[in-house]
Design brief:
Number of strands of chain B: 14
Distance between the termini of chain B: 43 Å
CATH architecture of the largest domain in chain B: 3-Layer(aba) Sandwich
Oligomer: heterodimer
Structural class of chain A: alpha/beta
Strand content of chain B: 15-25%
Number of domains of chain A: 2
CATH class of the largest domain in chain B: Alpha Beta
Strand order of the largest sheet of chain A: 2-1-3-4-6-5-8-7
Largest sheet of chain A: 8 strands, mixed
Radius of gyration of chain A: 21 Å
GO biological process, one term (chain A): cellular respiration
Helix content of chain B: 40-55%
Pfam family, one (chain A): TPP_enzyme_C
InterPro entries (chain A): 2-oxoacid:Fd_oxidoreductase, THDP-binding, TPP_enzyme_TPP-bd
Keywords (chain A): Oxidoreductase
Largest interface: A-B, 43 and 46 residues
Shape of chain A: globular
Number of helices of chain B: 13
GO molecular function (chain A): oxidoreductase activity, acting on the aldehyde or oxo group of donors, iron-sulfur protein as acceptor; thiamine pyrophosphate binding
Chain lengths: ~325, ~375
């Protein structure tokens, strides 16, 4: 960059912007500008995710991002990793196949609340139950953005949506509770305001072995905010700031969200349990012995790991909550 | 070995090492065989939470580098339909077997039919082309499973094996040749410079080579209309290019894809056109008709989609009638009528499934066709 008295060297529509942007290595700059509205929280989540990968030291060629459908479903199209934009609600099973076909990948699902918790709800609970080694980021804006602001399974009771024009009378899911109860081994929640914490948590989840679920409460200014007369993106940030309550290690039964009420944040759950693939390999090694062909890319390495786990299996599920480490 | 088990063995012989599935009668034995055999061969079996998850995991696994297969029956097949469209749009090579049973709805879950023949062709939304093969025996379940994988890899398209309950549960001798005598088409892996790689090439004749996630190409693919890089390109012009390609890569190669078996068509007055289990019943009727002095030939469709249009047109020019027995209320007969275009009579011997035809019904139709 040149001195302060000069104009910026790039603007959003020239070539140097695309090449010199600090995110250029991680984003498909040739696809910019993106489709998200001003004030939307999805871009913040993408930035934090990319920052976390940058800091993680992980091999960027071994990271794959899978999305479903909707505004958040478009994330896969903008990140410069192997990326897959799939059918509505099916990002998790797609990611499951991808991960199992090539276990050396770190597979991350980034999608919305409608996609993951409504049409994809069954896949969410079963992937958590199996402790499938996936990282799932659910961008929760309490609404279906791309189809025009309909109610979702996370819309707080009383909030207005285009299909609940007189206010929502249903009970919403509390996603951290759902993920925890289903067997997820890493569960956290932040808001789009908590960029630093979110990045830290993404970093941890990237290194977590097993099913991690991170909910990010994000504003949809065009639909949710406007329909509910909640102002713009900045007003959403004010609300998050005033109502956020960081409660690391909180019992997930207590972290439900009411309309414009308090939002409990933090890392609620972190525990270790064999992943689906660990369970497959450990089980067959035990019952079939040497006749079992270990599944996975590097058989020698897998066998070593499996033997290590067998030695440690006497100790039950170890709870390794280190509360407070995220802020 | 029964047909369901033979499907699994054929897939394993073709190099399939990933199976995500969900149990449904009468296809379950294939899944069970995979569950049994995968640990012995370094493969992975996973029983998913439903059919949608199964088929979607399979598409994901292809992009992770595996050869994949799943198997289902009517209701499960319907649930998978949306994802078949995704697989077509992403040009994903995969094999799906439908062990057909009667419907609609739950119908008769344990009894045979051929009622998904049009669903496989048109069931997913939008315009696309697939390949569908129909085995008539456990041996063909094995052989066509391998053929299906080869076609899937060549054309980067989902290939369907439309078997049925009777073939699925029929026990017959299956000859498994030595591995070095089986022709296996491996995936066309891209090997050029990274910066030049394009996952798609809409030339309408061939499919672009593939890479897998983790190889460092940082590919993007989507169910949206896309350009050669796989990036969304939402214009009618691009859609025309993509859809035209999906259709033409199958249609322009139809001659190399289509396999049929024929017997005594030359000089025949009547030809029976059938496929799968119905063709085995038709053989008995044809024999009886020949004993009665009727000149009757047989055309067995091994590939049903793409449809053998030219062959049907040629036959229709030279016969009095074409008889089409099938275990549905008339599906493939519509294609036969279309291609015959009034040049000869087309007699449908339809059935609402639950049991195979009585050969007498087919014989009666042959007699009717021979003596108008």
């Amino acid at each position: 960059m040149s001195g302060a008295d000069h104009a910026p060297e790039y603007s959003t529509d020239d070539k140097s912007f695309r090449e010199q942007n600090p995110m250029a290595e991680f984003l498909r700059m040739e696809r910019m500008p993106h489709i998200w509205c001003p004030g939307c929280g999805i871009g913040t989540v993408v930035t934090c995710f990319v920052e976390a990968i940058k800091a993680s030291g992980l091999d960027r060629d071994k990271i794959a991002v899978v999305s479903g459908i909707g505004c958040s479903g478009r994330v896969a199209g903008y990140v410069k990793f192997d990326s897959f934009h799939t059918t509505h609600g099916r990002a998790i099973p797609f990611a499951t196949g991808l991960k199992l076909a090539n276990p050396e990948l770190k597979v991350v699902v980034i999608s919305g609340d409608g996609d993951l918790a409504s049409i994809g709800g069954n896949h969410l609970i079963h992937a958590a139950r199996r402790n499938m080694d996936l990282m799932v980021i659910c961008i929760n804006n309490f609404t279906y953005g791309m189809t025009g602001g309909q109610v979702t399974p996370t819309t707080p009771t009383l909030a207005n949506a285009s299909t609940t024009p007189h206010g929502n009378y249903e009970t919403p899911f509390s996603l951290p509770f759902l993920a925890d109860a289903s067997g997820a081994t890493f569960v956290a929640r932040w808001t789009a305001l908590h960029a630093h914490n979110m990045t830290q948590t993404f970093g941890k989840a990237l290194k977590h072995r097993g099913f991690s679920f991170i909910e990010v409460i994000a504003p949809c200014t065009t639909l949710y905010q406007r329909r509910n007369k909640l102002g713009d993106g900045l007003d959403a940030m004010d609300y998050y700031k005033e109502n956020a309550d960081i409660q690391h290690g909180a019992d997930t039964r207590s972290v439900g969200i009411s309309f414009q009420g308090e939002i409990a944040l933090g890392k609620f759950v972190e525990r270790q349990k064999p992943t689906f693939l660990d369970a497959v390999n450990d089980h067959y090694m035990k019952v079939l012995g040497d006749s079992y062909q270990l599944y996975g890319k590097n058989t020698a390495e897998l066998r070593k790991e499996a033997e290590e786990r067998a030695r440690l299996s006497a100790s039950e599920e170890a709870e390794i909550l280190d509360c407070g480490a995220d802020d | 070995m029964d047909g369901d088990h033979a499907l699994a063995e054929g897939a394993l012989a073709a190099g399939c090492r990933f199976f995500a599935g969900y149990p449904i009668t009468p296809s379950t034995e294939t899944a069970e065989r995979f569950a049994e055999r995968c640990p012995e061969v370094g493969g992975l079996f996973i029983q998913m939470e439903d059919e949608i998850a199964s088929i979607t995991a399979n598409v994901g696994a292809v992009w992770g580098g595996q050869k994949v297969m799943t198997v289902t029956s009517g209701p499960g097949f319907s649930l998978m339909m949306e994802t078949f469209g995704l697989a077509c749009m992403m040009e994903t090579p995969m094999v799906v077997a439908d062990v057909q049973r009667t419907g609609p709805s739950t119908g008769l879950p344990t009894l045979t039919a051929q009622q998904d023949m049009m669903q496989v062709r048109w069931g997913s939304h939008g315009d696309y082309r697939i390949i569908a093969l129909v085995p008539d025996s456990p041996q063909e379940c094995f052989d066509l499973a391998i053929e299906a994988f080869n076609l899937a890899e060549i054309y980067r398209v989902p290939v369907f094996i439309m078997t049925d309950e009777t073939v699925g549960h029929m026990h017959e001798k299956v000859v498994i040749p030595p591995a070095d005598q089986i022709r296996i088409v491996e995936r066309n892996w891209y090997a050029g410079p990274k910066e030049d790689y394009r996952p798609y090439d809409f030339n309408g004749r061939t499919a672009a080579p593939m890479v897998k996630a983790g190889d460092g190409y940082r590919i993007h693919t989507t169910g949206l209309t896309h350009d050669e890089r796989g990036y969304p390109a939402l214009t009618p012009a691009m859609n025309r290019k993509v859809v035209k390609h999906l259709i033409e890569k199958i249609e322009s190669n139809a001659d190399s894809i289509i396999r049929t078996e024929e017997d005594g068509i030359e000089g025949a007055d009547v030809v029976v056109v059938s496929y799968g289990i119905s063709s085995r019943i038709a053989i008995r009727a044809i024999q009886q008709a020949r004993n009665a002095g009727i000149k009757v030939g047989m055309l067995r469709l091994i590939t049903v989609w793409p449809f053998c249009e030219t062959k049907i047109r040629d036959i229709a020019r030279n016969v009095k009638a074409i008889v089409v027995p099938e275990l549905n209320y008339g599906q493939i007969v519509l294609e036969v009528e279309r291609c015959a275009a009034g040049r000869c009579r087309v007699i449908s011997v339809n059935s609402c499934g639950g049991a195979v035809h009585d050969p007498e019904e087919i014989l009666a139709a042959i007699k009717e066709g021979a003596n108008p």
